[in-house]
Amino acid sequence: MNNYSKQDILIKAEGVSLSYGDKLILRDINFEIRDILRPGVVQGQVVSLIGRSGIGKTQLFKILAGLNSPSGGKVTLHDGKPVKAGDMGVVFQNYYLFEWRTIYQSLELAAKKNPKFKRQDIKKEINKYAEQFQLTEHLSKYPQQLSGGQKQRVSIIQQLLNGSSFILFDEPFSGLDVVVLEKIANLILQVSLSDELKTLIIVSHDIETAVSLSDTVFVLGTESNKAGATIKTEIDLCSRGLAWKEDIKYMPAFKETIAEIKAVL
Ligand SMILES: Nc1ncnc2c1ncn2[C@@H]1O[C@H](COP(=O)(O)OP(=O)(O)O)[C@@H](O)[C@H]1O
Ligand SMILES: [Mg+2]
Q1: Per-residue b/e over 47-71, b at no fewer than 16 CB within 10 Å?
Q2: 67, 118, 123, 257: least CB-packed within 10 angstroms?
Q3: What pLDDT is stored for residue 1 in this prediction?
Q4: Same structural domain for residues 193 and 155?
């Protein structure tokens, strides 16, 4: 069995709601993400936030990233302070890269924000990630010369270089072909093992891929006769023995969990 424990709260949502005019989009969202400790393993956290298209995932994503304020409630970090823009690394669905900067220049800008890097080490760090993510030959290109999957990898490296503990991904698997999707999934897994406090939140409607990478799943859905989406189910994959395993998609318990999620969507 997995040997693990859950420690300090890293991020907490309390009574978060969001409305536009008289339309309630999100209602009473509550959850905590805790630091997971596994003896002998540098283990970050991977949480997926799953829900149908249009349910409010991107809206919640922006609130968690501190980019939008909720209409009610709050999101706080481990120090109890409200999350603010810049606290979290954000990988948007449409990989916003500066069109007028080369990939190298965009990455350099990210690395300069990280107090851990000395100026003279930045080039080496960029080259290291570029190699790992198979982007070496693209460093001098502009974003419009790259494919969607390549741009997404650049977007992920940007967040790795700027050193934030939290990285939020909005629909990281959409619009990718199967081969690229598997690569991105693997990279996300590698990132989660790179630092004890690294916490990745994946917003997705690709249930199987998101769940296969995660230790915890929150399902966003609506309840009958109530407006607004809320967290209908929280699934702790660690306690089910479904976290940190390869080839998990073929396990019967994994398939049962997927069926359970689909039933509440
Ligand atoms: N600025 C806005 N004004 C009014 N409604 C909005 C606004 N932005 C998003 N919405 C609504 O919020 C709901 C959730 O959208 P979104 O979070 O993008 O869904 P998802 O990411 O789950 O597909 C949708 O019904 C959308 O129309
Ligand atoms: Mg969305």
Answers
A1: bbbbbeeebbbebbbbbbbbbeebe
A2: 118
A3: 53
A4: no
Indicate which residue's Cα is closest to atom 24 of ligand 1: 54
CA atoms within 13 A of residue 23's CA, in its CB half-sphere: 4
Task: Answer with the one of 130, 145, 163 that is the final residue of a domain.
Answer: 163
**Domain range holding 210?**
5-88+164-264
Threshold 0.85, pTM exceeds: yes
Residue 17 has a CB neighbour count (10 Å cut-off) of: 17
Distance 34 CA to ligand 2 centre (A): 25
Q: Which pLDDT tens digit goes with each residue over 223-255?
A: 999 999 999 999 999 999 999 988 899 999 999
Pocket of ligand 1 (CB under 6 A): 20, 25, 51, 53-59
CB 98 within 8 A of CB 173: no
For residue 116, the CA-to-ligand 2 centroid distance in Å is 33
79 and 11 fall within a common domain: yes
257 lies in the same domain as 144:
no
For ligand 2, the distance from its centroid to the CA atom of residue 52, given in whole angstroms, is 9
Same domain, 207 and 251: yes
